[in-house]
Amino acid sequence: MTASDVRTCRRGLHPIHGAVLGGTAPLFLGGLLSDLAYSSSYQIQWSDFASWLIAGGLIFSSLALLWAIINLVRADRRGGHFLLYTLLLFATWVVGFLNSLTHAKDAWAAMPMSLILSVIVVLLACASTWVGFAKFGVGGGR
Question: Where are the transmembrane segments (predicted)?
Answer without folding.
Answer: 12-29, 49-70, 82-101, 107-133
